[in-house]
Amino acid sequence: MGSRPRRVQPATGLSFDLGKRVLSWGKGYAWNPVGFVQRSKDATDPNLPREGYWMADATYVRSFSPDRLGLGLVQTVGLTLIAIPANGSVNQDFGPKSDSSVAGKLYLLVKDTDLDLMVLSGGARSLRYGADFSRNLGSRMEVHGEIARIAQSERPVLDSQQQPVVIAGASTSYLLGLRYITEGDATILCEFYHNGEGFAAAEERAFFTLAHLAVETGDPALIERANRIAAAYRRPSALRNYVNLKVSQNDALGIVYFTPSLTAQANASDRSLLILPELLYKGITNLELRLRLQQNVGPRETEFGEKTASTRLEFRMRYYF
Fold it and tell me: What is the band of 68 on the pLDDT scale with cuts at 50, 70, 90?
């Protein structure tokens, strides 16, 4: 995971960091379209720790009194600038090219609404920019969203002759979510995610048709053709539209630190579904116990219907030190 980053704070609100860091850009729970400077989440387990990238960044934050900047319209301003090297020695997997990138984020707290504007320069990754927001609608409800524009993205598809071709162009991804906490301390989270870099359902079906044909016939040419593009279709959330619904209950059954939850994640493009009940217990110092069952539901030639196993049961014990 790398060494702990070094921080210098020469003045109030100003800090400089150098080292391997895990940043968290975006307000979404399962997905972050504006997560330009971080590794993607596993949408089926968004809280899993992720490895960071080596970077140098500077952050300045300033709050304003109510009589400044439009009678209190803007309450807080923050600016973060980041340099991310990518070469044979560090951050080799940051992007398809070995080149340094520069990113920036402007944070605004405007009338109790969190706003972020982000940009990542061309470099190891193509130019991309976006925005997110989060706002509380009363004491129990919160709404959030993100939108990102990528100047150049590519996806491999099959043409009418079942030959791989690459479709390139700009793309837009976005997310809209709602979180509600009931009087009984249950949390209901619902998010819709559109992946502008994702595949259409017809493109997915064409790939699975080729893959099944390759396996059934054993034709080396078909197997090689399917393997050439398989990684793109196997990546998480590879299609265009998803809905994630999670319901969790804190201190269930009167047991402190016991949180059962149920997640349903639907691929709205091919209508396949993942159902994930989970039991989580954190009542022992520095120890986390988790039992989860993953059920993949869907017909042949759909994302969740084509998973290696339709059912997976796992128990995890994590100790912190």
Answer: low
On whether the CB atoms of residues 107 and 115 are closer than 8 A, the answer is yes
Q: How far is CA 155 from CA 10, 31, 223, in A?
A: 45, 19, 19
pLDDT in tens, 232-269: 999 989 999 999 999 999 999 999 999 999 999 999 99
Cβ neighbours of 114 (radius 10 Å) = 16
Give the span between the Cα atoms of 74 and 65, in whole angstroms.
9
Show the DSSP H helices in 26-117 as ranges. Answer: 69-72
Backbone phi, psi, residue 300, to 5°:
-55, 145
Distances (CA, A) of 303 to 122, 208, 294: 32, 9, 14
Distances from the Cα of 231 to the Cα of 44, 153, 157, 235, angstroms? 18, 16, 12, 6
